[in-house]
């Protein structure tokens, strides 16, 4: 059994925030692979489907980003999923927009959703990091406020056209390769 998690914040207000790129990816995979309707269960929206004779769970935590680990732990425990079969899609400010990198374990780079997951299940799961870039320097705010405002801001129409849609399409096209841990496709 495999668990694919898209990090984000629930609610229409956050739908196209940079921080919600994980939700957007899960929604795209859901659409492309025709998963059944999302169910609300254990602080999550989840959908389960067999792909290549293996159960795959798509998960969007209904907790806010800082508490993502609660929902991940609930589903991991309920379905007895090993960390080696857990994949987390999330925004990464230290990557150029549209850049995709995959790693297992390691630090969380200050990402509160990853911090929460690490606290609940450890850090030995796969992270699919999608670049959203960094904000331009602004001396009026503390660094943490600049980053927070950046990731909680919406993608511009230009970003959506220039790279967001193609990144979502690429990841959904390569979804089976991700599940099979064939990471050289990116």
Briefly, what CATH class? Answer: Alpha Beta
Domain count: 1
For the report, how would you describe the main beta sheet?
Answer: 7 strands, mixed
CATH topology name, in short, is Rossmann fold
In the sheet with the most strands, the strands line up as: 2-3-4-1-5-7-6
SSE topology string: EHEEEHEEHEHHH
**Total number of helical segments?**
6
Low-pLDDT stretches: none
**Percent helix among the residues?**
25-40%
What is the name of the CATH superfamily? Answer: Peptidyl-tRNA hydrolase
Rg, nearest Å: 16 Å
Query: Which descriptor suits the 3D outline?
Result: globular
Describe the structure in your own words:
With 186 residues, the chain is α/β, with parallel strands linked by helices. It has a single domain, classed as Peptidyl-tRNA hydrolase (Rossmann fold). Helix content is 35%, strand content 22%. It is built from six helices and seven strands; from the N terminus they run βαβββαββαβααα. The chain has a seven-stranded mixed sheet with strand order 2-3-4-1-5-7-6, with helices on both faces. A hairpin with a 2-residue loop joins strand 3 and strand 4. Helix 1 packs across helix 5 and helix 2 packs parallel to helix 3. The longest helix has 17 residues. It is globular, with a radius of gyration of 16 Å. The two termini are 23 Å apart. The mean pLDDT is 93.
């Amino acid at each position: 059994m495999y668990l694919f998690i898209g990090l984000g914040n629930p609610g229409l207000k956050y739908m196209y925030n940079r921080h919600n790129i994980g939700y957007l990816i899960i929604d795209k995979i859901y659409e492309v692979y025709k998963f059944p309707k999302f169910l609300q269960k254990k602080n999550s929206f989840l959908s389960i489907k067999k792909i290549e004779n293996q159960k795959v769970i798509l998960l969007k935590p209904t907790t806010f980003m800082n508490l993502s680990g609660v929902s991940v732990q609930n589903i991991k425990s309920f379905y007895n999923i090993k960390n080696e079969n857990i994949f987390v899609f999330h925004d990464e400010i230290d990557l150029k927009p549209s850049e995709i990198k995959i790693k297992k374990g390691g630090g969380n780079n200050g990402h509160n959703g990853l911090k929460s997951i690490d606290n609940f299940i450890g850090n030995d799961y796969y992270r699919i990091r999608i670049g959203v870039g960094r904000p331009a320097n602004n001396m009026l705010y503390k660094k943490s406020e600049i980053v927070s405002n950046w990731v909680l801001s919406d993608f511009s129409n230009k970003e959506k056209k220039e790279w967001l849609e193609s990144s979502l399409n690429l990841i959904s096209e390569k979804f089976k390769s991700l599940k099979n841990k064939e990471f050289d496709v990116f």
